[in-house]
């Protein structure tokens, strides 16, 4: 039996949204108040979702102690109370929460082995949240690849509306 486990962590960090590739005027236009030269802070809420078989002996996907220890050492110790702009990973990439999401995903993907990483979600404010589930997420679906012969013999999918009702 496979199950998903999501754990939430909190950290605080500051950032300034500014791209070296753009002029000051373009930056101001693109990022608005977030381009303020002094930066600003957020209390980020980070959700990490992992999956795996439920171990028969322990009844768990993975031990939360292992996940907590990894996230504390590799993510919270790295970013909590930091200025994200000073981090090496944001020397070339603007520290938007999209890019923070992918940076955290990559750290977990590389180093956390007890369970399969599904996704990372970050709430930046009450109004904004971002998710990243790895490169697999942006692969085109078979329906989009369409013209490939391998998919021609498959039956047309039944049209289903968003409540799951088939169009009969
Ligand atoms: Ni911000």
CATH class descriptor = Alpha Beta
CATH topology: Tetrahydropterin Synthase, Chain A
CATH architecture: 2-Layer Sandwich
Number of strands: 5
Measured by DSSP, the beta-strand proportion falls in 25-35%
Assembly classification: single chain
Shape: elongated
Radius of gyration of CA atoms, rounded to a whole number: 20 Å
Bound molecules: nickel (II) ion
Largest sheet descriptor: 5 strands, mixed
Through-space gap between termini: 33 Å
Query: In order across it, which strands form the biggest sheet?
Result: 3-1-2-4-5
How would you describe the overall organization of this protein?
The protein has about 170 residues and is of the alpha+beta class. It is built from 4 helices and 5 strands, in the order βαβαβαββα. It has one domain (about 1-140): 2-Layer Sandwich (Tetrahydropterin Synthase, Chain A). Helices cover about 25% and strands about 25% of the residues. A 5-stranded mixed beta sheet has the order 3-1-2-4-5. Bound molecules: nickel (II) ion. Nickel (II) ion (NI) binds near residues 15, 34, 40 and 42.
